[in-house]
Amino acid sequence: MATGATIHRAELSIADMDRNYYADHSLTLARHPSETAERLMVRVLAFAMFADPDLAFGRGLSSDDEADLWLRDRTGLIELWVDVGIPDEKWLRKACGRSRRVVVLAYGGSKADQWWKRNAAELQRLENLAVLSLPASSSAGLAALTDRSMRLNVTIQESQVWIGSESKEVSVQLDVLKPDASSAHH
After folding, report:
1. Which residues have a Cβ under 8 Å from the Cβ of 90 and sit 6 or more positions away?
2. What is the sign, positive or negative, of the torsion defined by CA atoms of 15, 142, 65, 131?
3. What is the pLDDT, as a whole number, of residue 142?
């Protein structure tokens, strides 16, 4: 874990009706000193959306050659690579070559929109890449849920995500900027 990282703990209770996945997960998240609450919570959202007993967090901002989240098969091959934010297009091409499926959860309002406009033509060529956009109001709502110790209920149905704590709930509808060739969900 990064030097100076703040540790956050999240207890997630996930009910993903789209994938018929129901499970509880205890997460320990290291928040890099330069990481915002918004980015931390987008990582939690990404975990909830692709939850699997073997889904793991990468080393994050302290390492630029790993995914934010990844799922490996028993042989070590990367089945799913998830990046949050607005990654470099060249880096995404490399990630697509290293894994079966790559998903970007882009956020950041107008910066994310500009990133997509700049990179859309090149990224459309990557068949195993999906790009989802998180509206600024949703990422701000997620940031408001941030705490050092969180108990969150997550419900996913018809690609709509609800994340709630005891005191707040956020509804998230991701825009699909680019679906990947292998996936019709999320």
Report:
1. none
2. positive
3. 95
pTM as predicted: 0.92
Instruction: Name residue, tokens 């790559």.
Output: 102
In three-state form (DSSP H/G/I as H, E/B as E, the rest C), the secondary structure along the chain is CCCCCEEEEEEEEEEECCCCEEEEEEEEEEECCCCCHHHHHHHHHHHHHCCCCCEEECCHHHCCCCCCEEEECCCCCEEEEEEECCCCHHHHHHHHHHEEEEEEEECCCHHHHHHHHHHHHHHCCCCCEEEEECCHHHHHHHHCCCCCEEEEEEEEECCEEEEECCCCEEEEECEEEECCCCCCCC
pLDDT in tens, 22-65: 999 999 998 988 899 999 999 999 999 999 999 999 876 555 67
3, two tokens: 């030097």
